[in-house]
Amino acid sequence: MGPISSRATLTLEPDGLRLDGRQGLARSLHAQLKQKILLGQLAAAQRLPASRDLAQRLGVSRNTVLRAYEQLMAEGLLEGHPGAGCYVAQLRREPPPTAARTPAQAAGFEESGQASELWARLQSLHLTPPLRPGERGLRWGLPAQDKFPHILWSRLQQRFWRRHPQLASGYADPAGLPRLRALIAAYLNSSRGLACTPEQVLLSAGSQQAIAIAALALLNPGDRVAMESPGYRAAAAALGLGGAQVLPLPLDSEGLRIGALEALGDCRMAYITPSHQFPSGVVMSAQRRLDLLAWAQRHQAYLLEDDYDGEYRYAGVPLAPLASLSGAQQRVLYIGTFSKLLFPGLRLGYMVAPKAWVPTLAKLRAVLDRQSSIVDQHVLADFIEEGHFLRHVRRMRRTASARRDTFIRAWERELDGILPLPSPLIEAGLQLLLRLPNPHWEQCLLKAAQAKGLEIGGLRQVGGLASHSQEAGLVLGFAATPEAQLEAVVADLAQCWRPVLAGLRRKDEQ
Ligand SMILES: Cc1ncc(COP(=O)(O)O)c(C=O)c1O
Question: Family assignment (predicted)?
Answer without folding.
Answer: In the C-terminal section; belongs to the class-I pyridoxal-phosphate-dependent aminotransferase family.
